[in-house]
Amino acid sequence: MGHLDLPSRHLERAVEEISSLPGIGSKTALRLALHLLGKPQEVVDRLAGALVEMRRGIRHCRACGNLSDHELCPVCSSGRRDASQLCVVESFREILAIENTGQYQGLYHVLGGLISPMDGVGPSDLSVDRLLERASGPDVREVILALSTTLEGDTTNFYLHKKLSPLGLEVSTLARGLAVGDELEYADPVTLGRSIAGRVKLAP
Known about the structure:
The protein has about 200 residues and is α/β, with parallel strands linked by helices. About 40% of the residues lie in helices and about 15% in strands. The chain has 8 helices and 7 strands.
């Protein structure tokens, strides 16, 4: 617990667990724990139950890899999406960001990461084969590479473009409204929306 001297082992354990979450230090964790301690038992039970239910109940969409309560996520199961467009993203976080712009009506494909030799992540660690399988389908006409403008994102873009080119599809990438080095999930909706709408077609 560092420099925090707590009177209860139960409180100390709660603070330890809360402070293991990203962006939460021990003082913030203590504040949250004390806040919960002051709430009625049923409120804390509801929170704990929701977290357990989330962890046990959420699965990955069998089509695109997005988070879902069912075999197919709401995007893939919707009959109103444009099946001719496939937007490739690093994780489900980018789907949330792109959906928030309201500028895209196609389908998605979650890679599950980015190529990063420094971190030991290669193409075989990502959902590349499944992407090529989906992109080869009769409906897909355009693949949009919506990856972060980082070194890893650019490396992955280059690799996927090389793999997709023989399929004869239109392959595009986000317009550079995003600053170099930007993580896609943190981009503001207006900038991200413009980057999708103004996407750039990559040469074969």
